[in-house]
Prior knowledge:
- This protein is of the alpha/beta class.
- Helix content is 42%, strand content 15%.
- It has a six-stranded parallel beta sheet, with helices on both faces. The protein has a six-stranded mixed beta sheet with strand order 7-6-8-9-10-12, with helices on both faces.
- Helix 1 crosses helix 2, helix 8 runs parallel beside helix 9 and helix 10 crosses helix 11 (248-260).
- It is elongated, with a radius of gyration of 24 Å.
Amino acid sequence: MTVSITDVARAAGVSASTVSRALRGRPGVSEEVRAQIAAVADRLGYTASRSASSLASGRTYTIGVVAPYIGRWFFGTVLDAAEQVFSAAGYDVLLYNLGSPEARKRFFTRLPVRKRVDALWSLLILDPDESAALRSLGVPLAGAVGGAGEGFTVVGIDDRAGAEMAVRHLVNLGHRRIGMISGASGPLHWTAPIDRRDAYLGVLAESGIAHDPALEADGGYTVKGGEEAMTRLLAASRPPTAVFAQSDEMAMGALRALRRHRLRVPDDVSVVGFDDHELAEVVGLTTVAQPVAGQGAEAARLLLRQLDEPDAEAPTDKVRMPIRLVLRETTAPPSPRGPQ
């Protein structure tokens, strides 16, 4: 016999509407009651009818997500955390991977999510036309990793402040030849590489250190790219005694290149990364920690809040998540033997 929502309500001693709110992750139900209802529903084998709920509410119970490079660690981690929040609230995720210019153009020309989603979350940095196209959907919008735009609730970090932490740490240790592995070839319109480079140049200038273009190399935000970039930096006439990598994955590639060249870290070269990747502690990497999963979860919660409380005022600017410098074993004062 099929178990109905009324059966669950009767067994839990609450109303059917309370059961519906609890199982859909809606507000107005305490966590204790929500847990009790979930336990009763599980014991009775109750499964909510998605089609019935959709007909009653006019919702699809689907969140659209557009993202670049879903195979990359950062984006995969952000997406996984957000999907858990959406799933707990009873929503499915419709994901569009727009890593190529062709896929991106096709998506924004056709807008295949129209009338298929209740809200949309973007991990892209949108240009004005793309932003306007998403606003035309008439659904709540959220973004992550930067690029706040009109009509979007955006969750991210202060990339400039994080890079300043990293480079200033190297300066305070006494380094004067500080290289940088950047992500200039990252996703289209991505602002993080620009902000982090500006911070790098700013700290050098305020510290009286002349900028040497030979101490910059693009690592494309990959381990392999970081390894190749570090190799180019080592080929400079006066190689760096320290390197700031704009991501931990590039920093790990740099460590591999240094090991291959029989250079010791941090005795010969110091390395600092950015992210606090799940493997950063394993390799002892000094890094700027950002809550990657936390950004995904927070963006998802804010988007669901817009759905549940459409009249509530959404944040009008980027919601900034905390960052901090984590000191490990890959940074130290420069060796007297190295170039200064």
